[in-house]
Amino acid sequence: MPNVFQPWQIFTNRALRVLKNKLVFLKGCDRSNEYLFAKPGMKSGNTVNVRYPSRYVGRTGEGYTPEPFVQSSYPVVIRPLQGIDIDMPSTDWTLNIDKVEEDVLNPAMAQLVNNVERDCMQIAYQGVANFVGTLNTAPTTSATPLAAGAYIRNEAASDDTTPRLLITPNTNAAIVPGLAGLYNPQQKISAQFEKGLMTK
Questions:
Q1: Burial of 138 (0-12, 13-18, 19+ CB in 10 A)
Q2: CB-hemisphere CA count at 13 Å for 100?
Q3: 86/108 Cα distance (integer angstroms)
Q4: What is the pTM for the complete model shown?
Q5: DSSP for residue 2
Q6: CA dist., res. 181 & res. 184, Å (int)
Q7: What pairs with residue 74 in β-bridges?
Q8: Confidence (pLDDT) at 92
Q9: Taking Cα atoms as reference points, which of 184, 183, 177 lies closest to residue 197?
Q10: Measured over all CA atoms, what is the biggest interatomic distance in the chain, rounded to whole angstroms?
C-alpha cells in the first residue's frame, strides 16, 4: 500500500494563523452575531435578521404619553465566498512545509485579506451616514479624527468601546507633523519621527 500524506489540516491551520495576523480593518469589527450562522440545528442560510435597539422619545411633565413598542431588524448577509486556488505539485505541499508557508501561504493570505477587507470597507463606506473632513484631502491636524470621535459618541456609541482609526500612508505623512507638539511620552513621539508612522 503506498504512503498517503494528509498535510492539508496543517496548511489550513498555518494559513488561518497567517490570515489572522494580517487583518487590519476586520480586527475591529463586531463579531457578536457570528454564532447565528452555521449553528447545529439552525439552518439560517446566508442571511439572519438582527434586531435594532429600541428607541424612545420620552415625555415632559406628569401627563401619561404612551409610546408604541416597535421592534425592527435588519438582515445580515454573508457576502460571496472568497478564496485563492493554487495549482502546485503535491510533493511540494508534503515535503517542505516551511518553504510552502513562506513562498505560497504568506503572499496568498496577504492577497485574500486585501480582497476581503476591501469588500468590507466598501460596505462600511456605503453604509456610513456621517463623515468629517474634506474628501480626497488628508487632514494635517487632530481636529478631523477628534470630530469623527464626536460623531460616534453623538450617535450613542458605548463609552466602553475604543474607536479605531485607519488611515492611508498619505494621511499618515500629512498628520504626523501636525501632532508633533502634543504632550505625549517622549519615546512614542520620537518613534513617530524615526519611523514616520503614528504609534499607539
A1: middle
A2: 19
A3: 9
A4: 0.62
A5: -
A6: 9
A7: 50
A8: 66
A9: 177
A10: 87
pLDDT at residue 38, rounded to an integer: 65
Residue type, 143: A
Express each pLDDT in 32-69 by its tens digit.
Answer: 777 776 666 666 677 778 787 777 888 888 889 888 88
Q: How far is CA 71 from CA 52, 53, 66, 158, 188, in A?
A: 7, 8, 16, 21, 47
Whether 76 and 50 have beta carbons less than 8 Å apart is answered as yes
Q: What is the pLDDT of residues 138-174, one digit of tens each?
A: 888 888 888 888 888 887 777 776 777 788 888 888 8
Q: Which residue has the higher pLDDT, 94 or 55?
A: 55
Cβ atoms of 112 and 83 within 8 Å: the answer is yes
- Within 13 A of 98's CA, how many CA atoms are on the CB side? 0
- Which residue is associated with the grid cell 499618515? 172
User: From the CB of residue 103, how many other CB atoms can be counted at a distance below 10 Å?
Assistant: 13
CB 113 within 8 A of CB 22: yes
Task: Return the pLDDT at 199.
Answer: 52
Within a 10 A sphere around the Cβ of 171, how many other Cβ atoms? 19
pLDDT at 198: 56
**Which distant-in-sequence residues (6+ apart) come within 8 Å of 75 by Cβ?**
47, 48, 49, 50
Half-sphere exposure of 58 (CA within 13 A, CB side): 2
